[in-house]
Amino acid sequence: MSERKKVVLAYSGGLDTSVMLHWLRYDQGYDVYCLTADVGQGEELSGLHEKAMKSGAIGIDVVDLRETFVRDYVFPALMANAVYEGYYLLGTSLARPPIAKALVECAVAQGAVAISHGSTGKGNDQVRFELGAYALKPDIEIIAPWRTWKYKSRTDLIRYCHEHDIPITATAEKPYSTDRNLFHISFEGGVLEDPWYAPHPDMFRLSVDPRLAPDEPQDIEVTFEDGIPVAIDGKVLGPVQLLEKANELGGKHGVGRVDIVENRYVGIKSRGVYETPGGTLLYHAHRAVESLVLDREVMAMRDGLVPQYTRLIYNGYWFSPEMQQLLGFMRQIQKGVSGVARLRLYKGNVIVTGRKARNSLYNPEYSTFEADKVYNQADADGFIKLNSLRLKLNTYRDQAMLADPTKQVTDEVAKLRKDFIE
Question: The domain at 179-294+337-366 falls in which architecture?
Fold first, then answer.
């Protein structure tokens, strides 16, 4: 039996983790057990078992996290309308907590002393993986090679692979990096580091160029139960199947492309391009349904918390106590947000054309601009006057101060000021 310490490596089979597997095994003296989390990478997962074992791993698990990823992370984010800095639907951010959880569980099962990941020392993912791991297992050891080894670039890693006969498909000329899951694909680095550079149309994978999308719009209906999407066009689907269907529909019409410069948690600005076709149409559908159901002040309270909720996801605090409280709040207020939104998809656009909900607060008898018997328009006079009272008092005060700056200063206050100065 080996006396070497064991480490669990988050393994993708790409350039970085291929080098890390060899480096941990042969340069650092660990037995390396690989864990690959399937969050919807598709064909990228093919051949990983054979590749890992040939590269020196003592074993590998490919864990199917697709269901829990969508059900327990993506849908709660959509339920709260979580969008980072106005554009980003958090596709990569949401995939990291379930992966961190799987890494910790694998480390415990394997008796490993540490986990390791391929994130750089500049990015957000190192924070997300490690905050999650420490929250779930405080005594876990974490090895982050990019923060400790001597290699500084992709060129260095490609050279390492050639020196040690590690099979790779990466080249130094690859124009950008990608990260794919069921919710989205992200593109960053390389040519995209120039924020003026326009992404090449052939780069995108989940969506057609909006200019080449069908010339006829398509209407679809999305059904929600307690804030969670459960059906498209009347067909009830499980979480994974529903998101896949939403991706297919959104992608067909060029929906869900964004190009942003975002603020990383470590303090660096980073340019990212994202494709989130299904998430984009589900986001708009959810907002349409809840607009009928949520009370005005409850919605305002929720909207005030969304930026904090979103930052917690983006920055890696999914397993924090504050996030658990916010998750509970979001789930509670979404009870009864059940209904159907009708969307029109057309050349990159998502247009809400209808919504209905069985718990709707929308009452046509009150909302109509025609004659009604339930609303006394004269009541608005007193309502407006009462609400304008503080505005009037502020103006009266300011006018008096301008006319005579000393008028509002009482003799007592004047004496106190005089005594203080003297």
Answer: Alpha-Beta Complex (3.90)
Residue written as token pair 């917690």: 312
Order of strands across the sheet that contains 177-180: 177-180, 185-188, 269-275, 257-263
177 is known as an active-site residue = yes
The one catalytic residue in 16, 31, 38, 179 is: 16
Does the annotation mark 96 as catalytic? Answer: yes
Nearest to 160 by CA among 27, 52, 56: 27
- For the chain, the farthest-separated pair of C-alpha atoms sits apart, in whole angstroms, at 92
Looking at 12, 116, 119, 125, which residue is catalytic? Answer: 125
Q: Which amino acid is at 16?
A: D
The angle, 0 to 180 degrees and rounded to 10, between the axes of the packed helices 154-163 and 15-22 is 50
Q: Which residues have C-beta within 8 Å of that of residue 282, sequence separation ≥ 6? A: 78, 222, 229, 243, 246
Choose the catalytic residue: 61, 71, 177, 360. 177
Q: Residue 29: left (phi > 0), alpha (psi -120 to 50), or beta?
A: left
Q: Are strands 59-64 and 177-180 parallel, antiparallel or unpaired?
A: unpaired
Of 243, 241, 233, 239, the closest CA to residue 277 belongs to: 243
End-to-end C-alpha distance for the chain, whole angstroms: 87
Q: Decide if pLDDT at 5 tops 90.
A: yes
Please compute the mean of the pLDDT values over residues 315-320 and round it to a whole number. Answer: 98
- Among the options 25, 96, 154, 302, which is catalytic? 96
CATH of 6-174, one of 3.50.50.60, 3.30.450.20, 3.40.50.620, 3.40.50.720: 3.40.50.620
Mean pLDDT, the chain, rounded, equals: 93
- Say how far apart CA 4 and CA 246 lie, in whole Å: 47
Angle (CA) 304-256-200 rounded to 5° is 130
Render pLDDT for 197-228 as a digit per residue (tens, 0 to 9): 999 999 999 999 999 999 999 999 999 999 99
Task: Tell me how many degrees the CA angle 28-29-32 measures, rounded to the nearest 5.
Answer: 100
202 catalytically annotated: no
Say which residue the tokens 């500084």 belong to.
152
Domain parsing of the chain, residue ranges: 6-174, 179-294+337-366, 379-421
Q: How far is CA 96 from CA 63, 305, 386, in A?
A: 14, 22, 51
